[in-house]
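Q: Second attempt. The first request was missing the SMILES, so the protein and magnesium ion are both included now.
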Amino acid sequence: MTVRNGDHAFRQRWFEFLAPISRKWRIILGSSIWILFFGLWEAAVISGWVNTLLVPSPLQVINTLYELFAEQGFLMDVGISVARILGSFTVACAIAIPLGVLMGSFKTVESFVNPFVSAWRYLPAPAFIPILLMWFGTGELPKLALLFLGVIFFLITLIMDHTSQVRSELIETAMTLGGKRWQILWTVVVPAVLPNIVTSMRQMLAIAWTYLVIAEIIASTSGIGAMMMRARRFLNTDEIMAGILIIGVLGLAFDVMFRWLQRVLFPYLEQEGHA
Amino acid sequence: MNLSHAHGDVPTVTARRASTDEPKLRLESVGKSFHVPRGPAIEAIADVSFTTHENEVCVLLGPSGCGKSTVLRMVAGLEQPTSGNLTLDGQPILGPAQERGMVFQAYTSFDWLTVQQNVEYGMRLNHVPRAERRERASHFIELVGLHRFANTYPRHLSGGMKQRVAIARTLANQPSLLLMDEPFGALDAQTRWQMQELMLSIAEAANTTVLMVTHDIEEAIFLADRIEFMSRHPGTIREEIVPAFKQGRRLRRKEELIGLSGYDDLERHILQLMREQGGDSADH
Ligand SMILES: Nc1ncnc2c1ncn2[C@@H]1O[C@H](COP(=O)(O)OP(=O)(O)OP(=O)(O)O)[C@@H](O)[C@H]1O
Ligand SMILES: [Mg+2]
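A: Got both inputs this time. The predicted holo structure:
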């Protein structure tokens, strides 16, 4: 990490306030922590520090993951889990986005809906599991309902807050240009808040994964969580860990997808100097 | 109220006024109080009366907090007066409308639209046909000197350029009264006088009546056909000043101001007015 300035090496140290880091070094440092993690794990298994029945080696987990997909139809479980997430999340967004935007735009809508929404926000969604099971049995409905309840109220609140923070000068400019209310809603408020809506969706999708796993562990015969609970009965720790791994990878994949979406939808936000 | 100082010996030239004597904009004893939760109502302005004539550049000048923005926002229809009447061309002002376009001090370019789309925006709201929209937008983008940036997003523009976009956007919408609240307040000195000169030439070219707020004395004298000087607590018109030394014509360049006899006197007079208001000007 040295740069030369003429004959003199410009001062450059490992720990420097406000100093940027090159892409190369970011990647090197970022991968080394994972290499370190898996290396220590593997070492612990090989040296016999840990009981391999409870902690299988990382290579074993990868191997199991392959077998799960190749021989035990795990893809089906993954597909079901992803479908549950997408299904309930789509419904939640379809309600939360219009409602949140209207609440953030018009005080009358906020005064009417917000007392209701903010009360529900303080109820943890898992509290509804027993009653959901009683009402809907063990089909898909209670799982979808739990995911829905887990994200909808937070999503509404986030979108409302972002909408009410749209700068008043932008709205007033449109008013003095002769804009009608609905025109302004569609051509100023919505485009101004859209990048923040996508960010909120990204954050809440991560929460949705949490509720999915809870739902599948508690009451399900299909999906990633259910597979892990099955594996527990047969002490297949490698399968449980494979499940954890796949949940992490899927979560990451969705996050990357959202970030890509953000770049495609909002090219005008692109930072200079950031490739 | 001593008006003779401002008028001097030179008779006021009124050539700019429309043939009829009916003013474009009229404020009659306008007052505004703000209600704050758990506190007494704040009387921001009281008994403000003045008129602005067709094609005139009228400047609201005064110390910070005297209510200049409040007056302008009421003319824009963004704020409701507590008392009094505001009329434009004889019609009462009941809310914001296309005929009264406003340029704010803060940047108001729409980040998600290019410069061209920003300038076309007002016309799109008013359903101007696409071809005419294009043409008018290009004309005003050219006027403010941004034709090379027509397809650029505002985040790549400097502060002065963003403000030019806002001005072009408002003018392209063809308001009959252009309202500006310290539009150049955030700009550096050089960009500032360039924008002032630009504004004068555009107001001339587009035949627009302008009502503008500033607390910069030099800016007021340079731009104004008429200055409404406001005092505070509560805000009201302290004195109406016609910079008679300009003899009713507008200056094209800032430096022309310096040589003109009468300029120094007027600046001194306004400085004295400001100082009278002073006292608590520490909050400026
Ligand atoms: N929304 C509001 N609520 C309460 N008080 C307000 C509001 N807007 C303005 N005021 C008060 O009205 C008075 C005039 O404010 P205004 O912004 O019009 O002054 P100004 O002359 O534009 O000042 P500046 O030169 O600093 O912009 C101030 O005392 C201010 O506190
Ligand atoms: Mg102001």
